[in-house]
C-alpha cells in the first residue's frame, strides 16, 4: 500500500446491487466528481448489473465480482486478488453486503476502507457490526443525521461517523420536453392536477398510503391524476390496490429515464415513505420546483422544511396525507412559494460538488492515518 499522499488518488468503489436506484445515482455522482478533481475511480460490481454497464458507458474502469450473498466468500477471495492487483489508495464500500464482503477483502489486501450507510434503520448491535464498523473500515459516512443516529444506537463509535448528505446535479435534471407535451402524451389536461411519485414499487415507499389518501380526496370532490414512475416486486399488488381505491386515477409508468420531464409536468410530488435514509427523489423534486409532500421519517424530515420548502405528514397516515395534498391542489400560491424555497434549499445544502468535497475531506483524513499492517 502506498503511503498517504495529497492526491490524485485511486479509489475502488464496491457496490453489490444489481439494480440501479438512488444509492447508485449517488455512487456515480461521486465518481464523476472525483474524476473531475483528477482522481481515478474503479467500480467493482456484479456482472450484468446496470452499474457495470453505465460505468463502461461513462468511461470508468470496471471489475466484475458476483457478490451473490453475505456467505459468498469466493467473492472475498476474488476481491482481495483485485485489490492487490490494483493497489488503490482506498476502498469505498457503498452497500451493506459490500461493507461485509468488501471490508473483509480490503482487510486482507491491507487497503484502508470506508463505508457509506444509506438506510435509516438502526444498525443491529453484535459482533458483525463491531467488526465491520470497528476493524474492517476506518470511517462511515451517513447520508443524513437520522442515519448517523441509527449507527450510534447500534453501537458505532460517534468518532468514526461523518455526515455527508446525498446530493443532485441540477444540470442533469433539466427537462427536455414541455409541460404540455408530457401531459398530452399521458392523456392529462393542461389544468388537471397531477400528483407524481417516483420510487421502487416496494412496501416501504408507502404507495398504499397514497391510494388510501386518494379515496379520501374523492369524497371531497378531488380526483387528481397520479403518475407512478418505478418498478418493483409489489407492482401487481399495488395495481390491485389502486384499482380498488382510486379507479381510473393511477397510471403505472414503469421505469423512466425522463423523470425531469415528469416533474416539470406534475403539480405535486408525493413521497409517503415508511422508511427513508434521505430521499434523493425528494431532492430532485425540490430542484424541479414541484411542490413536495412527504412523510416525517428519516432524512426526509431533514430535506423538507415543513411549511417552508414542502409539507411533512406523519408516516402511514392517509388522512394527513390527503389533507396536505388537498391544500396544495387548492392553493397554487402555496405551491409556488414552496417551489421557490425548495430550489434555494437544494442550492444551499445538497449540491453534488458539496458531497464530493465532503468525501475528499474524509478520504484525506483516513489516508493521513497511514497504511494498514497485518498486526493492526
Question: What portion of residues is helical?
Answer: 40-55%
* CATH level 3 topology of the largest domain: Rossmann fold
Physical arrangement of strands within the biggest beta sheet: 3-2-1-4-5-6-7
Distance between the ends: 14 Å
In terms of DSSP E residues, the strand content is 15-25%
Number of strands: 13
Major sheet details: 7 strands, parallel
Q: Helix and strand string, N-terminal first? A: EHEHEHEHEHEHEHEHEHEHEHEHEHHH
Look at the structure and give the CATH class of the largest domain: Alpha Beta
Our Rg estimate from Cα atoms comes to: 22 Å
Mean pLDDT: 94
- Based on Cα principal axes, name the global outline: elongated
Q: What descriptors fit this protein?
A:
single chain; 376 residues; alpha/beta; Rossmann fold; 2 domains; seven-stranded parallel sheet; six-stranded parallel sheet
Could you explain the architecture of this structure?
The chain is an alpha/beta fold and 376 residues long. It has two domains: 174 residues, 3-Layer(aba) Sandwich (Rossmann fold), CATH 3.40.50; 179 residues, Rossmann fold (3-Layer(aba) Sandwich), CATH 3.40.50.2000. The protein is built from 15 helices and 13 strands. It has a seven-stranded parallel β-sheet, sandwiched between helices. Helix 3 crosses helix 4. The two termini are 14 Å apart. The model has no long low-confidence stretch (mean pLDDT 94).
Amino acid at each position: 500500500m502506498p503511503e498517504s499522499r495529497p492526491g490524485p488518488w485511486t479509489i475502488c468503489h464496491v457496490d453489490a446491487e444489481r439494480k440501479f436506484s438512488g444509492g447508485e445515482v449517488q455512487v456515480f455522482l461521486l465518481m464523476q466528481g472525483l474524476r473531475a478533481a483528477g482522481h481515478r475511480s474503479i467500480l467493482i460490481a456484479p456482472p450484468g448489473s446496470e452499474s457495470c454497464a453505465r460505468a463502461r458507458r461513462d468511461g470508468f474502469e470496471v471489475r466484475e465480482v458476483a457478490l451473490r450473498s453475505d456467505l459468498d466468500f469466493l467473492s472475498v477471495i476474488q476481491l482481495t486478488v483485485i485489490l492487490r492487483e490494483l493497489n488503490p489508495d482506498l476502498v469505498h464500500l457503498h452497500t451493506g453486503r459490500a461493507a461485509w464482503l468488501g471490508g473483509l477483502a480490503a482487510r486482507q489486501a491491507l487497503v484502508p476502507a470506508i463505508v457509506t450507510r444509506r438506510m435509516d434503520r438502526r444498525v443491529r448491535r453484535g459482533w458483525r457490526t463491531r467488526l465491520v464498523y470497528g476493524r474492517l473500515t476506518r470511517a462511515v459516512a451517513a447520508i443524513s443525521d437520522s442515519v448517523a443516529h441509527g449507527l450510534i444506537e447500534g453501537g458505532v463509535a460517534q468518532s468514526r461517523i461523518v455526515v455527508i448528505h446525498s446530493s443532485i446535479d441540477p444540470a442533469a435534471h433539466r427537462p427536455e420536453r414541455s409541460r404540455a407535451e408530457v401531459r398530452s402524451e399521458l392523456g392529462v389536461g393542461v389544468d388537471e392536477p397531477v400528483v407524481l411519485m417516483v420510487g421502487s414499487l416496494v412496501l416501504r415507499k408507502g404507495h398504499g398510503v397514497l391510494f388510501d389518501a386518494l379515496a379520501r380526496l374523492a369524497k371531497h370532490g378531488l380526483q387528481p391524476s397520479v403518475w407512478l414512475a418505478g418498478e418493483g416486486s409489489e407492482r401487481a399488488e399495488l395495481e390491485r390496490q389502486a384499482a380498488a381505491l382510486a379507479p381510473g386515477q393511477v397510471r403505472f409508468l414503469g421505469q423512466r429515464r425522463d423523470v425531469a420531464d415528469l416533474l416539470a409536468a406534475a403539480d405535486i410530488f408525493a413521497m409517503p415513505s415508511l422508511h427513508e435514509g434521505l430521499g434523493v427523489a425528494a431532492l430532485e423534486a425540490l430542484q424541479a420546483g414541484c411542490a413536495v409532500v412527504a412523510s416525517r421519517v428519516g432524512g426526509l424530515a431533514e430535506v423538507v422544511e415543513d411549511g417552508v420548502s414542502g409539507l411533512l405528514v406523519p408516516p402511514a397516515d392517509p388522512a394527513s396525507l390527503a389533507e396536505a395534498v388537498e391544500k396544495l391542489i387548492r392553493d397554487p400560491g402555496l405551491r409556488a412559494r414552496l417551489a421557490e424555497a425548495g430550489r434555494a434549499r437544494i442550492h444551499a445544502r445538497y449540491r453534488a460538488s458539496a458531497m464530493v468535497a465532503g468525501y475528499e475531506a474524509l478520504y484525506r483524513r483516513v489516508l493521513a492515518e497511514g497504511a494498514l499492517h497485518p498486526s493492526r
